[in-house]
Structures are given as structure tokens and as C-alpha cells.
Specification:
By secondary structure, this protein is low in regular secondary structure. It has one helix spanning 40-44; strands at 12-14, 21-23.
């Protein structure tokens, strides 16, 4: 069984919509270079910009 990684060891990016940092997820493994948003809410453009 492979060793588990700490979440702090995983790569991070900033969301293009809200600007908050988000961490790599396994479901994004094949497409990590093209991931720009942290959630579906931010991707749809309906997220509020933090004040």
C-alpha cells in the first residue's frame, strides 16, 4: 500500500474567481494544469467576491 501524503505537501493554486488557495485533488490528477477554479460555484461565475 502506498504511503499517504500530508495535505501540506500537495501542490496548491489560487482560484481565478475568488482568489482563495486550493489544494490538488485526485480527481484533478490528469488535468491539474488546466484547473482554474476551486469549485463549481466559482466556475459558474455566481460566486461573490470577498470584500
Amino acid at each position: 500500500m502506498p504511503k499517504m501524503r500530508k495535505k501540506s505537501d500537495l501542490p496548491t493554486k489560487s482560484c481565478a474567481a475568488c482568489g482563495l488557495p486550493f489544494t490538488w485533488r485526485k480527481k484533478w490528477a490528469r488535468d491539474w494544469e488546466n484547473v482554474r477554479y476551486c469549485s463549481d460555484r466559482c466556475r459558474s461565475g455566481k460566486a461573490r467576491v470577498p470584500a
